[in-house]
């Protein structure tokens, strides 16, 4: 890709294995250089690439996952200052936390059996206990789940919230400025996003519908116009458009 000014992206290609589905970044081995975790849906593998800080990466490390890894998020789930990662394994109906030993090894995993087939993950401390919690979409059940972290990388019982039809993507931010984290899902077979306002204690209001131009697979939350209100970007599969919804709250 060119910028028209003579500069180009350099594109080192890193072999990942079969059907790479998602990627996330963090510094796993504590050398202050960002590393990558890539998950391979068909081969049920996660690959770790250690960064050298100059754009090149060290040979990957392979880790097995349960069946059907679909999405991955990085966070310190155990508050030991070592960045862990969590994978949603759609076919296995699990989410698995890979606990980092501080050197970028993940000798211990904790798998949590979910009631539905989890798809996409998002993180946030929804009950303000300083432990990172999980929110996820259950695509085939048209629900969103909140899982509160018990502090050791395991989770308390699932809390379900109905969404629009076929929720795919999920994002977390404080959309109404009350300092409590909220959750939004993009619904792949609906013409609205589902917004869940948080109470700050791990509970959420039922969905508020944000109507837009139909069939919405993707959502991200970011302040685009620097007014300190978090806006929403989504895409319409039906109309082939990118949609920015400015927050006037
Ligand atoms: Ca690193
Ligand atoms: Ca940790
Ligand atoms: Ca928490
Ligand atoms: Ca809020």
UniProtKB/TrEMBL annotation:
Gene3D superfamilies on file: 2.30.30.100, Integrin alpha, N-terminal (2.130.10.130)
Stored SUPFAM superfamilies: Integrin alpha N-terminal domain
Keyword Iron: no
Protein's UniProt keywords contain Iron: no
Pfam families: FG-GAP_3
InterPro entries: FG-GAP (IPR013517), Integrin_alpha_N (IPR028994)
Segments traversing the membrane: none
Keywords, alphabetical: Signal
Protein name per UniProt: VCBS repeat-containing protein
Source species of the chain: Adineta ricciae
Organism lineage: Eukaryota, Metazoa, Spiralia, Gnathifera, Rotifera
């Amino acid at each position: 890709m060119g910028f028209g000014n003579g500069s180009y992206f350099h594109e080192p290609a890193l072999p990942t294995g079969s059907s790479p589905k998602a990627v996330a970044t963090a510094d796993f081995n504590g050398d202050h250089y960002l590393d990558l975790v890539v998950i391979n849906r068909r081969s049920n593998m996660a690959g770790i690439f250690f960064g050298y800080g100059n754009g090149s990466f060290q040979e990957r490390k392979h880790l097995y996952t349960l069946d059907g890894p679909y999405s991955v998020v990085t966070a310190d789930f155990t508050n030991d200052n070592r960045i862990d990662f969590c994978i949603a394994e759609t076919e296995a109906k699990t989410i698995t936390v890979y606990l980092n030993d501080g050197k970028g090894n993940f000798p211990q995993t904790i798998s949590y059996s979910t009631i539905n087939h989890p798809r996409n993950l998002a993180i946030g401390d929804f009950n303000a206990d300083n432990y990172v919690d999980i929110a996820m979409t259950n695509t085939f059940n048209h629900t969103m789940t909140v899982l509160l972290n018990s502090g050791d990388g395991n989770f308390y019982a699932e809390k379900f919230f109905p969404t629009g039809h076929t929720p795919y993507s999920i994002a977390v931010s404080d959309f109404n400025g009350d300092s409590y984290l909220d959750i939004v899902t993009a619904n792949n077979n609906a013409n609205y996003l589902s917004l869940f306002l948080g109470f700050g204690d791990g509970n959420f209001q039922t969905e508020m519908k944000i109507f837009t131009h139909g069939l919405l697979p993707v959502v991200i939350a970011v302040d685009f116009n620097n007014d300190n209100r978090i806006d929403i970007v989504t895409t319409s599969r039906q109309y082939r458009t990118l949609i920015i919804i400015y927050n006037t709250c």
